[in-house]
Design brief:
The chain has about 600 residues and is of the alpha+beta class. It has 2 domains: about 200 residues, Distorted Sandwich (Beta-galactosidase, Chain A, domain 5), CATH 2.70.98; about 375 residues, Glycosyltransferase. About 35% of the residues lie in helices and about 20% in strands. An 8-stranded antiparallel beta sheet has the order 6-7-8-11-17-15-14-13. Helix 5 runs parallel beside helix 7, helix 13 runs antiparallel to helix 14 and helix 13 packs parallel to helix 15. This is Glucoamylase (Glucan-1,4-alpha-glucosidase), GH15 family.
């Protein structure tokens, strides 16, 4: 497999990746950030997988059931065919709340003839650190490990367990199932019960998708991206993950490999803003509660990221026994970036708080807590905005005065003023306006580079940076302002490579980046659109969409030369930016249709 040709299934508790050929190659249970049970994606020899094996006469196709998170892989040789419907159960319970057990169901649907396949069932618990022993029991297949840490895993199936474990040929004549569970079942599964789980889960996702508005253009892409973002949300705490994986490299063979199964305040807040705009307010409310729970002390500084269960310490370690994706070592778990200072997170968080208060008004509970957080953020920004930091790209060496961080400090105060106006706190409005103007003037004075005719990466730097494009999105500058137009065009000239963008071109801690950061290309497309280069923006957008995998999913990066997907997958950042672009294009398309119809009416 040369690309990240995977589909994601999930139930807002954990997720799994299934390859184009129906192989379950990545899954951590019981939760997103638990140790892996299947990790072939990180080591194709010892990582562990659950594969459906057919001979070369079969063609294999894969798609989602529309508007759901149920992935269907179809195997057919023309006469004999079957499909695997993969999902993680999630549905509403009559007693309230959601049923989302740490389970994967692989429903085997017989379509025609007598298809033949073999099963390779090879779980490797605890990141394959010790030996996993698997035993056929009367009612299930049990796997366990105890060398490094004790852990167990269970497989229930309507097929012959000995045939599965011996990789014998299985002739399928009717529907069947595999249920993979972290816990032993009290009620033994049956085909009827498993089918009911499938239908209930299908109804859940159809209901969820029905709340997403319909768009004239790019509707399918918006809905698939929204579903992907939902699958990266963790119901229990309200956290939103950056991606479902760890250590998928930004560049094959290099060491830019990070664990993304955590909640970055920046990524999550941007996701929540977009998903909230699509009308999914429960996910936004849960995330705001997650933030409220994280800030018990009024003077406590916000970390840039947290564990999905609000953990504050995310110690980074390497798993040296795993070879890494395509041999790209090291495989890391945990993330040392949690210690970094990035001043932009306050602006991004305030933007979300303001957006939700404006959108849902009195429906938002915890208004007093949110007002308390707002005041606390202003206090922190006032105290620290003039200090250097690590910036949005998490440079691990020197601190700098990054333009993006300064713009987001301005955003924090601008949105705090708007929140104060909503709450009728005029004295704060008057007081905070002075600080807002001070930061604005500082950015205009120090971030603009006369020679480059652009706002640059950091104060006094000649280097361009795609993150600066967001100054318009956050309302710092008008899209038609000559300085902004000039910045967009300068970034196009210096950072655009065959329609894909570098984040920046100056060397970082690991040398010059050789892959494009997907979200930056979306930001660039959005900026082109905003400054009036709409045809060019649309052309770039369609080109970028063509680089997604076979299911319309994106990772973090795209290789400039081969256009293959790289980096952790699927990436929340990439999909939220896709939605933003698509919504802008669709809105413009609708406006043009209205104008056309008015012209026709005048005739």
């Amino acid at each position: 497999m040369d690309n990240l040709d995977y589909g994601i299934i999930g139930n807002c508790r954990s997720a799994a990746l299934i390859s184009k050929k129906g192989s379950l190659d990545w899954c951590c249970l019981p939760e997103f950030d638990s140790s892996s049970i299947f990790a072939k994606i990180l080591d194709d020899k010892i990582g562990g997988s659950f594969e459906i094996l057919v001979d070369d006469t079969y063609t294999i196709e894969q798609k989602y059931i529309p508007l759901t998170a149920i992935l269907v892989t179809t195997f057919s040789d023309g006469e004999n065919s079957f499909e695997i419907q993969d999902f993680m159960p999630r549905y509403y319970k009559q007693s309230g709340g959601y049923n989302a057990p740490p389970e994967i169901i692989r429903y085997v649907k017989h379509l025609s003839g007598k298809p033949v396949f073999k099963v390779l069932y090879d779980p490797k618990l605890e990141y394959a650190m010790g030996k996993t022993n698997t035993y056929v029991k009367e009612n299930f297949v049990a796997s366990l490990t105890h060398e490094v840490k004790f852990d167990t895993f269970f497989l229930y199936t309507s097929l012959d367990k000995e045939d599965i474990m011996s990789k014998s040929e299985i002739v399928l004549e009717s529907d069947a199932y595999f249920l993979l569970g972290y816990n032993e079942k009290i009620l033994e599964p049956t085909l009827e019960r498993v089918y009911l789980e499938l239908e209930r889960t299908k109804v859940y996702w159809l209901n969820w998708s029905s709340k997403t508005p319909t768009y004239k253009k790019y509707d399918a892409e918006i809905k698939r991206s929204a579903l992907t973002l939902k699958m990266l949300s963790y119901d229990k705490s309200g956290a939103v993950l950056a991606a479902a994986t760890t250590s998928l490299p930004e560049t094959i063979g290099e060491v830019r490999n990070w664990d993304y199964r955590f909640c970055w305040i920046r990524d999550a807040s941007m996701v929540i803003k977009v998903v909230g705009q699509l009308g999914h307010k429960n996910i936004a409310k849960r995330y705001l509660q997650f933030i409220i729970d994280l800030i018990p002390d009024k003077d406590e500084k916000l970390q840039i990221m947290y564990g999905i269960n609000k953990e504050k310490k995310l110690t980074e370690e390497t798993l040296d026994h795993l070879q890494g994706y395509k041999g790209s070592k090291p495989v890391r778990i945990g993330n040392a970036a949690y210690k970094q200072r990035q001043n932009d997170i306050y602006g991004i968080l305030m933007d979300v708080i303001y957006t939700q208060l404006e959108k849902f008004d009195t429906e938002i509970e915890n208004g007093e807590e949110l007002w308390g957080i707002t005041k606390g953020i202003v206090w922190i920004v006032n105290k620290h905005w003039q200090e250097a930091d690590k910036g949005i790209w998490e440079f691990r060496t020197e601190d700098r005065h990054f333009t993006f961080s300064k713009i987001l400090c301005w955003t924090a105060i601008d949105r705090a003023i708007k929140v104060a106006e909503l709450f009728g706190k005029q004295r704060k409005v008057d007081k905070w306006r002075t600080l807002e103007q001070q930061i604005r003037e500082d950015i205009h004075q120090h971030a603009w580079n006369e020679e480059k005719q652009a706002f640059t990466q950091s104060y006094g730097s000649p280097h361009l940076d795609a993150s600066v494009l967001l100054m318009e999105s956050y309302g710092f500058i008008d899209p038609k302002d000559p300085k902004y137009v000039s910045t967009v065009l300068a970034i196009e000239k210096e950072l655009c490579n065959d329609g894909l963008l570098y984040r920046y071109k100056n060397e970082d801690d690991f040398g010059l980046p050789s892959s494009s950061f997907t979200i930056c290309t979306f930001w660039f497309i959005n900026s082109l659109f905003k400054i009036g280069h709409e045809k060019k923006a649309m052309k770039h957008f369609d080109q970028l969409l063509s680089y997604s995998n076979h299911l319309g999913l994106f990772s973090e990066d795209i290789d400039f030369k081969t256009k293959r997907l790289l980096g952790n997958f699927p990436q929340a950042y990439s999909h939220l930016a896709l939605i933003e672009c698509a919504m802008n294009f669709s809105k413009k398309h609708s406006e043009m249709e209205i104008l056309e119809s008015l012209k026709d009416h005048d005739k």
